[in-house]
Write a structure and sequence with these properties.
The protein is an alpha/beta fold. The protein has a single domain, classed as 3-Layer(aba) Sandwich (Glutaconate Coenzyme A-transferase), CATH 3.40.1080.10. The protein has 5 helices and 13 strands. It has helices at 3-11, 27-30, 83-91, 127-133, 194-199, and strands spanning 20-23, 41-44, 48-52, 73-80, 97-100, 104-105, 111-112, 136-140, 168-170, 174-179, 182-188, 205-207, 218-219. The strands form 2 sheets. Strands 4-3-2-1-5-8-9-10-11-12-13 form an 11-stranded mixed beta sheet. It has a two-stranded antiparallel ribbon with strand order 6-7. The chain is globular, with a radius of gyration of 17 Å. The protein starts with a helix and ends with a strand. The relative contact order is 0.15.
Length: 222
């Protein structure tokens, strides 16, 4: 299993059965491949509730795609509606969980995921609406950027997507929750150590690991 698939699989425990869930583009889309039989209802901004798994190449319907323009299937009982109704669901608080990607996450749990200064912006999509409207927001992202620099930083240098912080950040190495405006490390993935996370995280975070792990109360970054 590659890194992106491992991250997607690590998101699943944060999604309750039967929830209405919106999966953002990139790694979040892969979460659908790891959901159990009592899968939640997947919603997409372009107007489908009941998104099914990715179809086989011979079964692709070019008119049936998610918001990222990739082909999907529709589960039995799925419903179709206008994009305006879809955003009404999001803004009205009817999406229980949103899973989003991120370019950066700051020490308060706020994210930047829609623009890189100096590069063309193709569109903001629904991330801003999901951050404000979804009841719970989970970030699924690699711990570092392609150049090895930390994605979890003290302050974002890219434009923030919204002022609301997310609830959970999941990477291939660790899981953080956001509590009282601060990041709390609650899980280490197999094969990763607290030392690795410290060295590859540029934001301050508290330690909340289970099983009485003997580590300092806080890890500070300056």
């Amino acid at each position: 299993m590659n890194v992106q698939q491992r991250i997607a699989a690590r998101v699943v425990p944060h999604i309750p059965p039967g929830a209405v869930v919106n999966l953002g583009i990139g790694i979040p889309t892969l979460v659908a491949e790891h959901l159990p039989g009592d899968a939640p209802l997947l919603q997409t901004e372009n107007g489908l509730l009941g998104v099914g798994p990715t179809p086989a190449p011979e079964d692709v319907d070019p008119d049936l795609v998610h918001a990222g323009k990739q082909p999907v299937t529709a589960r039995t009982g799925a419903s179709y509606f206008a994009s305006s109704a879809s955003f009404g669901m999001i803004r009205g608080g009817h999406v229980e969980v949103a899973v989003l990607g991120a370019l950066q996450i700051d020490a308060q749990g706020r994210i930047a995921n829609w623009a890189i200064p100096g590069k063309p912006v193709l569109g903001v999509g629904g991330a801003m609406d999901l951050l404000v409207g979804a009841r719970k927001v989970v970030v699924a992202t690699t711990h570092t950027a392609k150049d090895g620099s930390p994605k979890i930083v003290e302050e974002c240098t890219f434009p923030l997507t919204a002022l609301r912080p997310v609830d959970v950040v999941v990477t291939e190495a660790a899981t953080f929750t956001v509590e009282d405006g601060a990041l709390v490390l609650v899980d280490l993935a197999d094969g990763f150590t607290l030392h690795w996370v410290r060295e590859h995280t540029a934001a301050s975070f508290r330690i909340g690991l289970p099983h009485g792990v003997d580590v300092p109360e806080a890890v500070a970054r300056t």
